Amino acid sequence: MEKTLRGEVHATVAVLLRRLGDLYLKVKQESRALELTEQAADINVRVYGHDHPKHAEDEYTIGIICFRLKMLEPSLEHLRTSLAVYLKVLDDENDK
User: Fold this and answer.
1) Residue 46's CATH number
2) Residues 34-88 pLDDT 10s
3) Which long-range contacts (CB under 8 A, 24 or more apart) does 88-92 make?
4) By residue range, what is the domain housing residue 79?
5) Element (H, E) at 46
6) What is the distance in angstroms between the CA of the first residue and the CA of the last residue of the chain?
7) Quick one: angle between helices 30-48 and 53-68, nearest 10?
8) What angle do CA 46, 64, 53 make, to 5 degrees?
């Protein structure tokens, strides 16, 4: 798999994990989708950092999956984090 070719902490691995998570979400296997999406998010944070739109997107997706799993507190936490990152990114862009 791609992990062995490029290393485990690589943006391409995160994309593949995220796509697999999306597929599991479509077939209503939310727990597996959450696991894969969290793995992708961990990689994206290591590659791009916390103040990046990819991190905000990952947090949003994790929040939605948590909501589907009736994990309401974690869902709200992830959605708030997503919003905070997007606001920071937009504010940084406006400062330029």
Assistant:
1) 1.25.40.10
2) 999 999 999 999 999 999 999 999 999 999 999 999 999 999 999 999 999 999 9
3) 88/51, 89/51, 89/52, 89/53, 89/56, 92/51
4) 2-95
5) helix 30-48
6) 40
7) 160
8) 35
DSSP state of 49: -
Write the pLDDT tens digit of every residue in 3-40.
Answer: 444 566 788 999 999 999 999 999 999 999 999 999 99
Distance, in Å, from the CA atom of 55 to the CA atom of 46, rounded to the nearest integer, reads 10
Q: Which tokens hold the place of 28?
A: 């209503």
Asked if residues 60 and 82 have their Cβ atoms less than 8 Å apart, the reply is yes
Q: What is the pTM of this model?
A: 0.85
- In the chain, the number of structural domains is 1
Phi-psi category of residue 10: left, alpha or beta, with phi > 0 → left and psi -120 to 50 → alpha: beta
